[in-house]
Amino acid sequence: MEYIQQNFNVNFSYGVFFSSNLFDPANTCLSSFLESKAEPAFQKKLLVILDGGVVAHHTNLPQQITSYLQTVRGFQLAPEIITISGGESVKNDLPLLFSLVDAIDKYGIDRHSYVIGIGGGSLLDLVGFAAAVSHRGVKHIRIPTTVLSQNDSGVGVKNGVNYKGKKNFLGSFAPPAAVFNDAVFLTTLDTRDWRSGMVEAVKVALIKDAPFFTWMEEKAVTLTAGDMPAMKELIYRCAALHMQHIGGGGDPFESGSSRPLDFGHWSAHKLEQLTNFELRHGEAVSIGIALDSVYSFLLGWIDESAMQRILTVLKNMQLPIWHPLLEMQDGKPSPVIVGLEEFREHLGGQLTISLLRAIGKGEEVHHIDLDLLYKAVTICKNNQ
Amino acid sequence: MEYIQQNFNVNFSYGVFFSSNLFDPANTCLSSFLESKAEPAFQKKLLVILDGGVVAHHTNLPQQITSYLQTVRGFQLAPEIITISGGESVKNDLPLLFSLVDAIDKYGIDRHSYVIGIGGGSLLDLVGFAAAVSHRGVKHIRIPTTVLSQNDSGVGVKNGVNYKGKKNFLGSFAPPAAVFNDAVFLTTLDTRDWRSGMVEAVKVALIKDAPFFTWMEEKAVTLTAGDMPAMKELIYRCAALHMQHIGGGGDPFESGSSRPLDFGHWSAHKLEQLTNFELRHGEAVSIGIALDSVYSFLLGWIDESAMQRILTVLKNMQLPIWHPLLEMQDGKPSPVIVGLEEFREHLGGQLTISLLRAIGKGEEVHHIDLDLLYKAVTICKNNQ
Lengths: 384, 384
Ligand SMILES: NC(=O)c1ccc[n+]([C@@H]2O[C@H](COP(=O)([O-])OP(=O)(O)OC[C@H]3O[C@@H](n4cnc5c(N)ncnc54)[C@H](O)[C@@H]3O)[C@@H](O)[C@H]2O)c1
Ligand SMILES: NC(=O)c1ccc[n+]([C@@H]2O[C@H](COP(=O)([O-])OP(=O)(O)OC[C@H]3O[C@@H](n4cnc5c(N)ncnc54)[C@H](O)[C@@H]3O)[C@@H](O)[C@H]2O)c1
Ligand SMILES: [Zn+2]
Ligand SMILES: [Zn+2]
What we know:
2 copies of one chain form a homodimer. Chain A is built from 16 helices and 11 strands. Chain A is an alpha/beta fold. Chain A folds into 2 domains: 15-188, Rossmann fold; 191-382, Dehydroquinate synthase-like - alpha domain (Dehydroquinate synthase-like, alpha domain, Up-down Bundle). The N and C termini of chain A lie far apart (65 Å). Chains A, B: Residues 82-195 form the 3-dehydroquinate synthase N-terminal domain. Chains A, B: Its cofactor is NAD(+).
């Protein structure tokens, strides 16, 4: 039997910029980036897709974007800025996905041009996927406008949409060309989105960075009340930890079963779905972190005071730490807990759940004791 | 302005195996590969998607596959083998794409499991894309059953489907987990598919490997008449050249404009489309190679005898070297030649067309002289 072995590496690299007032004509952060990519021989194109929830609070934004991008040398802005509603519902809408693909086609966005998504994590996941499948992948730039997307989803390498009620069933790994975080957008966030975005920072601190957790303990109350300098620091540190894990963790496209950044997420995904996304992602993850932290305590991995510190941070951020769907329902198993198998299937392979060995140190298990888990649910309930 | 730089490499590797009678219980090529991937902790799953055009000639194949795969240790075969019609039309059928996604969901194919596509390049392009977008990419194995898919499309890293009449508008780069070429399938190919598959070998020899071209000149007549040992050699050498280019050419996922393996393809893609895919891909590429070789001659890049050798090989393979759509139509420009801009857009950036500096040596240009191109059309017509 003859045989040929193929083997090659593909390099991925992108910058994440932290700025304010990106579309102020005096701010050259975005325009310099683009102009550094210009080519003398041809024009590159730009297509902007904008979150309607952002525009509602920044009504001049479409005009500002147009004036700003029209002057970028070497680039031609598509005649239309596409505004779509924001929020999770855009990920449940295949016709909307195809309408973005159609726009990429209509405006001649080729593999040297850029699609720019501006909005929350939902919009960015949708736009990133539309770009990833068009022409076998056109470049995309992300301008995240929520805490969650600035500190986690927007700086990573994944995209996706929901399919037949299954969260992120369709998607891909497609790193952005660049990411621009603009703090000004955060000033208009709904308080629920402001708060719930902080959860990913709690998550990544718990598994990787104890001093960052301690810092958040100190700042939890003022952060929650709207302390912007603290929020900028939280976002920067959280984004950096996520990026280090992706770039330095040895498995950026998640070919193995290990997924430490999903600490607290197995129950969260299911809770989001079961509540029809009335729970925000971060709220659901807050509940998930509480549950898995208490479970870690019941296993004897962390002590009671560590557990209490975790629950207190979440409560100081005014986030939920329990949900009725975690309990048995009329003698039947909790629908969230039944979702463990679905979670395993989405990841593939052996069940792999991150727990805590200490504050700042995650560790994986491949088995969950259901009795102990229901005990953890009760402890969360009583600690609310 | 703060800034974080992300940078990482992703390694891709896969083997291409050349065998015969893959599903003969005595042939352990495929089963050994799978068993080497088994894990003690859990079962992996297999879902087979089969080309109806293959089954029409190998009616026992579904049963053979079932018996063969049911005995592979560590793997569980989905209860259904999915047979779909083969040929280009499967790439024009979005509901069919989603029905494969549904099957991946229904049969619990996770990121450790395998989708196995068995069929021509069209089926493999469709199946590879369905796998690539499900769960952000489930693994797929390709078992190509045509000359073209065994020597070119099946051993590469691309997949895709057509969208709104645009060839491969939706697609991705997603290397297979492994490829198994089984020569026995080729015995039942339609003569048009047998012949047209050889064109990719002529193409890659012309741009990279003069001795291989000379070998094909000698073998053209017997190859065309059905010489299987020669065909196996042609496929092996052609696959190896394609794989070397992808793995060693520095741009496996085609981020630049350079695309030497697309020699002869700019007009071919348009001709396939304009003839509603009544021209086979290889037939269209044969015409495209003839046109671009003659154009290279008119530029003074190759001499007349080299040009004649190329046209003769294609004619000895009983392949077309001209098409009426290449000519002006009632005083209007040829619709194929108008398609040059569409080709540029699909690739992005500057127009980049491979031509020939010599037999065995491709070179790119960024400009095409239309008068000269119409002259080349006429020369092709007169040389048929
Ligand atoms: N790709 C990944 O790696 C990854 C990681 C984590 C989460 N996610 C996904 O991210 C999504 C959640 O994203 P999100 O939390 O950013 O919420 P979101 O995108 O759903 O937005 C929430 C709401 O805020 C509005 N909004 C956005 N920016 C605003 C602003 N600056 N001012 C006022 N309103 C604004 C939106 O219109 C929407 O109504 C989920 O679908 C989740 O699965 C993806
Ligand atoms: N992904 C890539 O890199 C790449 C490269 C080149 C071409 N392609 C694509 O490949 C497609 C063409 O593939 P193809 O030439 O293999 O043809 P095909 O897949 O369209 O098949 C042609 C016909 O042969 C039948 N068939 C397949 N195997 C058979 C067998 N062993 N015996 C009898 N009949 C058989 C099919 O059912 C079909 O009717 C095009 O869509 C082209 O764009 C992709
Ligand atoms: Zn999250
Ligand atoms: Zn081809």
